[in-house]
Amino acid sequence: MGFQSGFFWFDGGQFAEEAQEEAEDAYDAALGTRPELPENLEWVAKDEGYRQVLSLFYACTEQDPSRRPSAAAIVDLLKGTSSEEEEKEDAKEAK
């Protein structure tokens, strides 16, 4: 018995094994690389929302993992706050 994926019928035979190997090779080759973006992104510079998304994209795909933002920092950014702002507010409230 096999299963259907897209337009192909996989029966666990040679074709399925080759397709799986190709997919794994492509995945392995992409590890540690930044996905390509379209070349014509001039329109993005006019939209603050897209600039923020691209900034986050570049930060999260930094070559050096130690330079990538933490999950908490990403959540704060997406919520529209930063942990620095929250710390300042907490410090004001504590006074």
Key terms:
single chain, 95 residues, mainly alpha, two-stranded antiparallel ribbon, 4 helices, 2 strands, 54% helix, elongated, disordered N terminus
Structure description:
- By secondary structure, the chain is mainly α.
- It has four helices and two strands.
- It has one domain.
- 54% of the residues lie in helices and 6% in strands.
- A two-stranded antiparallel sheet has the order 1-2.
- The longest helix has 17 residues.
- The radius of gyration is 22 Å and the shape is elongated.
- The N terminus is likely disordered.
Question: Can you lay out the helices and strands and say which pair or pack?
Answer:
Blueprint (H helix, E strand, L loop, with lengths): L2 E3 L2 E3 L3 H17 L17 H13 L10 H9 L3 H12 L1
Antiparallel strand pairs: 1-2
Shape: elongated
Specify the structural class.
mainly alpha
Arrangement of strands in the largest sheet: 1-2
- Strand residues, percent: 5-15%
Order of helices and strands: EEHHHH
* Largest sheet: number of strands, sense, barrel closure: 2 strands, antiparallel
Instruction: Determine the mean pLDDT.
Output: 76
Provide a short characterization of the protein structure.
The chain is mainly α and 95 residues long. It has 4 helices and 2 strands; from the N terminus they run ββαααα. It has a two-stranded antiparallel ribbon with strand order 1-2.
